[in-house]
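Why does residue order matter? Because the sequence determines the fold. Keep that principle in mind as you read this record.
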Amino acid sequence: MALDQRNSPTLLLGIIGGLVAIIVLFLAYQWFFSTSNEAIPEHEAISLQTPAKPATSAEVKPTEAESVIDEKTIQLVDEKILKAPVPENESLLKEEVAKLDDIQTQLNDQEVMLKTQHTDADDLIALKEEQIKLLEAQLKKSNSN
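Structure:
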């Protein structure tokens, strides 16, 4: 390399640009994989790990693991938040209020989402019941012929 090539500003910008691109890609990779593990709420992660059980007409007593899961899903807000003392500093107070507002909006969004899922599930159940009735009628018709 000649002396002019080594001191070229375009070469220097190219090297710096390449290093910045590598660093940005590394940080994006770390951010993507750190948020993908945290994106699943705890109650969904538990339901993904436990196998689904078929519904039976007999009443089944919940096991200890199921009762623990139910207690965790029922408790939406940690009691520490409710009993924590209010900070005297105004900026800390505003920060605490903003944090609690964020939690409240998340809970409201979750409530809306759960209600829509519940109505969707009810609609699906009704459609499945109708489908079963139609299939039973079709089966009776084919058996009578």
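The chain is about 80% helix and 0% strand.
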